[in-house]
Structure formats: structure tokens, C-alpha cells
Design brief:
By secondary structure, this protein is mainly alpha-helical. The protein contains six helices and no strands.
Amino acid sequence: MLDNFSLKLRRTIGIDGLVSLVVGALVVFFPDTSIKFVAGLIGGALILAGIVKMIPVLRNQDYSGTDRTKDIIISVVYFVAGLFIFLDMNAASLSLLIVLGVLTGIVWLSEGVLHMTIINRLGENRVWPFISALISLIAGLSLIVSPFIGGLLVCSFFGIMLLIIGVIKIVQYFTFGK
């Protein structure tokens, strides 16, 4: 018999597994819609941030002229950026994939450079660290050169990992405490 904490933990694992499975399936089987949804979330967050940042400026008279001007400009930029996302969701989703590809490429490239710089300090066996650094450098460069395809691959990988995690957690849910 499971105690109260174990039942809550089991339920949490099950819900997490189900959410991971559903989100992973959406990303893998409907990548275009999923990317547009994420772009829409970002656009909504930008619009909301613009409105929330503007409210204190309009209500509070204690702002100095430069602070008021700066906050109004930032609020308008957030709001307009969010509107642009909603005006052209295709361009926004394409931009999101490109940014994802470029940022992932920069991270891998940085990791490869870092590994190459410390490879002499690793002792006698330098072959595997060198191969790992070389793979990171090549992967990073390929993502930076072709960020759209890289973004698609990163999204697909993310969806597949969520599917796998979801299946594992659902199996854990049904086998928990047995």
C-alpha cells in the first residue's frame, strides 16, 4: 500500500509523462503548428510585457523625463515586436527556427573551442577529448552555416526526446510501488 506522498509522486510522474508525451508528439508530428504556437506565445508575452511596462509609466507621476521616455520607448518596442509576430506567423516561426539553430551552433562551437584549449591539460589520453571537441566544432559550424535546417533538427530532436521521456514516465507511473 502506498502512502499519501507516494500517491502524489506517482500522480505527478503520470501527469508529467502524459504532458511530455503529448508535447513531444505535437512537436514531432506537427512541427509547423508547434513552432507557430511557440512564436505566438513569445508574441503574446512581448505584447503583455509592453502593456505591463507601460502601466506604471502612465500611473506614476514621479518618473523623471528621461526615465519616462526610456520606459515608453521600451514598452512600445515590446508591443510592436509582439504585433509583428502575430502579423506574420510564418516569418516569426522561420525566425524562431533560425535563432534556435544559430544559438545552438554558437553553444557547440564555444564548447568545441573550450575543449580544444584545455586538451593539453587532460593528461595522456587526449584522443577522445580531441574527437569530441572536433565533433562540437563541426556541428557548431554546420549549424551556423545552415541555421534553418539546424533549428529543424534541434526541434525534431527535442520532440523525440520528449516522446521518449513521456513513455518512460508513463511506464514508471504504471509500475510505481510494485
